[in-house]
Amino acid sequence: MLLNHRYNFLYVHIAKTGGSSIRAVLNRLRWQDPMYYLMFPCHKISNMCGHTTASKLPRHAGVIAAKEMLPNAFFNQLYKFAFVRNPWDLQVSSYHHIQRERPELLENIADFNEFITYKFDPARPYIFHFDIATKLQSEHLIDLNGEIIVDFVGRYESLHDDFSTIKNELGLKDFSIPHKRKAKDRKKDYREYYNQASVDAVSKHYKQDIQLLNYSFE
Known about the structure:
This protein is of the alpha/beta class. Helices cover about 40% and strands about 10% of the residues. The chain has one domain (about 1-215): 3-Layer(aba) Sandwich (Rossmann fold). The chain has a four-stranded mixed sheet with strand order 1-2-3-4, covered by helices on one side. The chain starts with a strand and ends in a 5-residue tail after the last helix.
C-alpha cells in the first residue's frame, strides 16, 4: 500500500496484479511528498523494531487497514485505487513467481494442476509464497460492511489504459508502466495450464471475486 500526501492518493497493492510495475512508477513520487521526509525515518524505525510500532501500512494490506488507521476526513478525500486480475490467470502468475523466487517449494509438486490441488488444500501448513495469492482480491477493496470503498478498480487485463485514467485523475505526466517480473517460460494463455478439477478449485475459492469483479474462466 502506498500513501502520497502531495498527490493525494492511496494505492492498494493486491499481489500478482501488476503491482511491482505500478510501484516502480509511483515510488518516483515519494520524495516529492513533503510528508515522506517524516514517513521515511518512521518506516526505518518500524523495520528495526519488527514493525511493532505499527507505523507503516503493510505492503499488501486491504483498504480497511488505512481506513481504520487514518483520520476519517483525510481518508475520505484520498483518491483510492487498486488493480485486480482474473483469478485463474493470477494462479498461473503465482505458480511462475514461486518457480522463480522459491523453486524449492515446488520440489515435490509435479505440475501446475498439482500445485493448485496443494495450494487450496485446507490441511496444508501456512506458506507465505503460497498464501499471498489466496486472499480474496475483493477483501482488499471493501469495508467492514462489504462495500467497495476504493474510488477506482483497474484491471490487469487493461493495465496501461486503466493506469492512464489514474494518471489523468492525479495530474501525472510522462509516466509509463514497465513490465516487472515477467515470467519468460509461461504460456501466453492461462487456460492451457488447467484441467477441470483445477478450474473448479479456483471457481470455489474465488467465488466472491468472480461474482463481484465479473470474471470468468473463458
